[in-house]
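Pipeline run #58 for the internal structure catalog. This entry was flagged by the ingest filter as a single-chain record with no existing model, so it goes straight to prediction. Upstream metadata was stripped on purpose; only the residue string is passed forward. Reviewer on rotation: M.T. Logging verbosity set to normal.
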Amino acid sequence: MKIFKFGSLIALLITGLSFTACSDDDNESGSTSKLVGLWESEKIIEWYKEDGVIVEGSLDEEDDTDLRYEFGEDGVLTMYERYNGTWHEDGVGRYKYSGGKIYMSEDGEEWDGGVSVKRLDDNVLILEGHAKYREDGVNCEDYMKLTCRRISE
């Protein structure tokens, strides 16, 4: 389950399929300058379905304080995971915030889709992603909603 939790944001970014948001993308939440800084996860809802059945995760919100995302002014996103009581860098890429979504690239390859920014203010960042796709004859669906608090600017 730990791998699933950390991989949620990344998995939703790299599926390259349709992501949905409940609000109009033209109503961008916050600005890139508000996004810059270090954010730590607090709550997460995530699940993965195959043919309509949840096979990983849950519909319930869970406490989760083991993920950090550092959005740099230079467009660099550094991801961290806490294990054995220590923070470890667990990925670096580039990001772009546009139309109420965060888009990423890694190793020069841009990932399609994006994760919707549902709320962005001085202290709270809420990300949400939802993707439906077909893989090996199976209807798959991913969902993630991650609530973070600002650690530093």
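catalog note: Residues 1-8, 10-27 have pLDDT under 50 and may be disordered.
catalog note: The CA atoms of residues 118 and 126 lie 5 Å apart.
status: ready for reviewer M.T.
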